[in-house]
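Exam review. A common question shows you a sequence with its structure tokens and asks you to describe the fold in words. Practice with the pair below. Do the first one on your own.
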Amino acid sequence: GIFKTKKIAQQVLASAVNNDITVMDTASEGGAWGISILAYYSALQEQISLETFLNDYVFEGATEVTVTPSSQEVVNFNNYVAKVKQALPIEQAIDKYLGGEADVRTIKS
């Protein structure tokens, strides 16, 4: 998952949305882990809500990490996005120069 390396993607996301981002220490497990948890839940004989199952069995004791972006990090992220947008015409010109739909990996220099 995107949160496998602690705080990196979380910091970028916090800067992008200019808001706190909180993830649990299980966030790095990804989709396969989540699907197996849902499969286990669906096989339970006991009738409990999914919310109760997750809170009382799966995430009980899980630690949360919250990242708050600094104003400078938000500025840095916005500057990065602005530079990427400025570079899009360059990418389009390269694409046109190389033949439009051509796969640039197959073009010999």
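Now try the second one, then compare your answer with the model answer below.
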Amino acid sequence: MPFARPSLTALIQQVLADLAQASGVPAVLRWRPDYAMGIAIAGLTQGLYGYLDWIARQAVPATSTGEFRAAWAALKGVFPKDATLTKGRGTFPGAPGALLPVGSAVRRADGSAAYVTTADAAVGLNGSVTVPLQASAAGPAGNGPAGTALLLSPAVPGVTSAGLAEGPLTGGTDAEDIDSDGFLTRMLLAYAEPAQGGAARDYLDWALAVPGVTRAWIQPNGMGAGTVIVRFMMDETNPGGFPVGSNGVASDEPRAAPATGDQLAVANAIFPDQPVTALVYAVVPTPQPIDFSIGNLSQDSAATRAEIRTALAAMLRAKGEPDGTIFPSDTSGAVDAVFGVSRFTILAPTGPVEIGTGSLPVLGTVTFVS
């Protein structure tokens, strides 16, 4: 039976009744010193009840917070993900042969982020140089799409200061908040399903512990007997959520070609924990676009259509997984939840959409029929 914590009003009444009984009077008068003392005692007692309530919440992993949650998680080898640095490549025009040295300072043209070059590079005969970049500070501020305007600051002789990101600048994440739902979920899974040395759940835990990884799926024997495919997404780090890099194995694994980029980070993180005989591939899911056609839409406007597209994309992210199914009820539920939509007809797809092995559903073309 749960303990019923008394309210402050109940505590005041109890203390005043006890004082009256101890003093041999029918009641403690409002302006007597005893009355003020009773109010003070009740307030202190209320604070003690609150402290005991807080202690009780910290006494079990599921309700703990802050440093106590971190301590409970550490007992199972679960630790907050560290902040990570954005990485990418920048291209700058210049005079052939001019050197862009390692450690050169680069910043976004809008001043929102700073980077440094991580290798020497020389301008080629084509009049441009491409150099690897790394953000100066950890966090998502350095992330950006391909074509982001960059500036060398200070200028480097023979190299034009204005350049562009050759591809997306990705990988920067904030440090994981101990009180976040994601950290709580990882901790509770560690208690509910402790590691068994290579179960499917273990690979999920190892992948989800990598900074930036938000979702993961396991395919045993996906590349043949004794192999494990780990597919994952980085929804909060990369545009579109899909990892950037090439599929493969860990850099210390001699039996297959190593991965690059985000896939290499995941493969290398799993490698020390995986069974020694397993050959683990880190793989990006294949996007599977799903087109929708919607008719008879009430409150038909550009804003409503945009909200429907957003709702459908969110539904696909929440429901989608390799070898899964997107049901008509999922689509109807997403559209019906959009504010102001009271009538609509889903014209396509008309039935369940099967998601292929290794694929992940993404929003395709949404057509609105008047």
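Model answer, second protein: Residues 287-368 form one domain. The chain has four domains: 8-59, 85-165, 200-283, 287-368. Full marks require stating both points clearly.
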